[in-house]
Amino acid sequence: MAASGDQISPSKKFKLVVFGATGRTGKEVVKQALDKGHHVTAIVRTPEKLNIQDKNLELVKGDACDVESFAAALEGKDAVLSSLGVYANIFNPTTFYAESMHAIMEGMKRHKIMRLVTVTSWCTQPGPNNSWFVEWILKPLFLNGVIRNMEVMEKMLENSDPSALNYTIVRPCRLMLGERSGNYKVEEGQCNTGTSGEITCADVAEFMLKTLESDEYDRKGFAIAGFSKRPMYRRCRALGTRVSYSEDKMACEERGNGPAPLKLVVFGGTGLTGKEVVKQALEKGYSVTSVVRSPEKAEIRHANLEVVKGDACDVESFASVVKGKDAVMSCLGVVASIFNPTTFYSESMHAILEGMRRCGMKRLVTMTAWCTQPGPNNRWLVDWFINPVLLNGMIKDMGTMERMLEQTEPESLDYTIVRPCGLFNGERTGNYKVEEGQCNTGTKYFITRADVAEFMLKTLESNEFNRKGFAVAGL
């Protein structure tokens, strides 16, 4: 089929080139394009990072800023889709967007490919509906290193020859992990009105592919955002009949057998708090499967402990070991800062929930931190200094992860969120206070990891902790 500006109709199968295929949105573009029966050539720097396999998928190692590294792979293709992105800030701005687009347009020109769809962001340029918060807070203080270069890239496309390029610029708001909802609004311009300010990567990918099916999107830019605060994450649906631990315990006691030993899956078992969870769970006679990236770091040895190598963000690496277990405990954590924020908490939880859904598991206990979201008892020092200045790179994503859990269906997930204050090593004291909500009152700013582990395991013994979040701190 000729490489041209012809539109891709839903009934036709075409040859697509995808840049940024190992990113969160890019993976969704690849997956959905393959689901539609299209042939996909993914240009990636690290092919092993794309864990999708399909007869219609071709992986090509290439650098988006070096046209010679990928130009040959564009021959005979029908359209290019780019969801490329990099991290930058006001102190470390990027030119990646303009440089990569210059190379991509050159490659397309060589092979006479006209159709291009690319992702940028809300409010890359001035617009009548631009959100004041984005314009005056997010852009100048946090996103300026990225947004400015996105604008340069957009102007490159706008100044291109209409007879040579049919582009569509897709401008999403805040991107979230999650399934396609179809519940989003598309408006030509810089920013959406009357929306939630969030959208799933899957919904963005769906719209990107949709723009190929009609010429109404040619040489225009569209803002896209979710309509409401409806659940952004897959609502897990129980596949089996397993009951919660407390229900199972009561049933066993009624039969005179005593409580059945729990079978737990622990993520973050080589971390300081995770080690305590594993140790104390084994002391209770539980069976523990510890999913870790580096098994050699697991110091505990026990007949009831199984150490499995897996990546918490890759469900395929651990899904099989979740089967037949009673509960998941997560003590995962990463180091991040305001200049180097993370999405690890939400990404790993998305994968963990998917693994649990596949196996029909309902019970989850996870650890976050004090004041991940607004609360009436939040300490001013935490809300106004520690979180925004020291922990902002982590706290924001912890909040995202918590909302993901809060938006699941009650019949499919029994979660407990444990929010400790400052953690330090030490023995179990039992001298701590637990309060439902974001922060403790009348307590210290510290608690031992052993006490946190004790409380995490305690939450499995009663339904009173289900689908709630609890702050915990030493007295």
From TrEMBL:
Residues spanning the signal sequence: none
Pfam families, alphabetized: NAD_binding_10 (PF13460)
Superkingdom, natural source: Eukaryota
NAD(P)-binding domain residues: 20-214, 268-462
UniProt cross-references to Gene3D superfamilies, sorted A to Z: NAD(P)-binding Rossmann-like Domain
InterPro entries from the UniProt entry: NAD(P)-bd_dom, NAD(P)-bd_dom_sf
Protein name (record): NAD(P)-binding domain-containing protein
Species for this entry: Porites evermanni
Species lineage: Eukaryota, Metazoa, Cnidaria, Anthozoa, Hexacorallia
